[in-house]
Amino acid sequence: MYSKIANLIWKEMKTQGYTQLQLTEKLDVPGLKLSQVFKSEKIDVYLLVQISGVLKRNFFQYLDPEELDIALNVETIKQLKGKIVDLTELNQQQEVILHNLNSQISRFQKFLQQLDEKKSKRSV
What is the mean pLDDT of residues 54-81? Predict the structure, then answer.
C-alpha cells in the first residue's frame, strides 16, 4: 500500500525536477530523512499532507477507504492534537515575550524623549 504511494511520490518528485534534498528542504518536517519515507511500510499522515502540498498532488486519493482509516488512526489524531497544544503554548509564550518587548521599547522611547528634552533645555 504505502510502497505504491512512495513510488508515486518518487515519480512525481522526479517529474517536477526535485532531488530528495530539495523536497526535504521544502517540507515543514524537521529532521526528516526522505529516504526513510520511501523505504517505510507506513507514512505519517502529516507528512503526506506536506508532500501533497509541495508537489501539488493529492496522494490521499490512492488510499482506499480502509487504508485511509488505518492511516488516520487514533494515535495519529492524538499526535496531531499534541502538536496543536504545543504550538498553542508556544504561541502564547511568544505573545508574552512580544508584549514585554513592546513595553521595554515604549519605556526606552520615553527615556530617550526625556533625554532629548533635557539636552534641548541645556543648549538654550
Answer: 77
